[in-house]
Amino acid sequence: MSSTATDQYQRSPVTRDRVRPRTIFSVIVFVLATVLTPVAVVGNWAHTTILDTERYIETVGPIASSPEVQEAFAGIVTDAIVDQIDTESLVGDFLGGILPSNPLTDRLAGPLATGINGLIGQAVDSFVSSDLFTNAWIKLNTAAQKGLVAILKNEPSGPIEIQGDDVVLNLDTIIELAQQRLVDEGISFAANITIPPTDKQFVLMTAPALNQARIFYSFSAPILTWVLVIVAAMFVLAILLARRRARTTVAVGIAVLGSSLVLYAMITFGEGIVTNQFEGSVFEGAVVVVYQNFLNYLVSGLQALLALSVIVIAGGWLAGRTNSANYVRGLLTRGLTGIADHTGWDTGVKLSPYAPIIRWVIVCTWLFVLLGSTLLGTFNGVLFTLLIAAVWTGLEILIRARTTKEEAVPEPVEVPKAPDQA
Q: How confident is the model at residue 192 (pLDDT cuts 50, 70, 90)?
């Protein structure tokens, strides 16, 4: 092959555009990060909300003041107590001792029994709306959270137990407090009521679901704290390895946006499924409140990710080579340079050679804090992003201020000496 032919081959588009190993690796890392994004978000939420006692109580604690939840628990406790006593027989025996007429006794027993059951219901309603129930709710959920973690570790303890194929939550504490409240209200026979254990339990999950949860916990628990940071690092690595980093940045933003929207849709769809499962039960009205509160942190995190993805897409577009991106960059550059000219800022150090490093440090700090702090939430995330934007703007002005000043100082011009005159 001649030298000319070799040069043409090396300069040909086919040769220039051949796929490089780093490009292939960039695509692989990008695909893996995209697939892991939903798992990372849900895993981070599960670790922070379910496995962290303090965060768990912050999540479920306010549920105790919900009217729907109070009504549901009032129904459970009232039914558990009333089902163990035959108030109509008790009233009939009492009336039979003072009234000789059996027909009259039978006629009065029903309404009076209904009235007594109503008094029991009112006393229980008063209990679930009191601070006593709120404190009992927090204590029960604190013990339940620790019991759930113990169950996942295959070390059952606390109010959560495995009975047959079901994982159940014992409500002994709340029912006992309700019985004591009835006694305090003058319904003394409530102290003698013995409620079967099965009436004081609530099924949380079945054995197959528990086995899946244990497998997920055993594999993912050690890394769940930093899983979002790991996925973010994979996306950054994919961008650094890519030949066209601007386009890859846009692709990263689109991937995060798509994952967030899919998870958001799944949460909405799951709410309908859970509501249908409890339709007709005493928890029908409360299940939506519990579901929304329990997933509130996850929804807030998804909102922050949506905002993050839009920012990443905008940043990737702005760094691209399209005419519109070039035009906007030109406007920003002229604006920052104009500000630098008028402020007269001077760092004393030429920053322009370090500009790329400074920008990457800012971006990595933004991602690390936003994701490493288990998602600040939409509002705090936006505030932190605005703070980073302000810092970035200030540094860009300083970079241009020093450069502008150096360019503005004319270099000394050597004036040639006039020749001596004869």
A: low
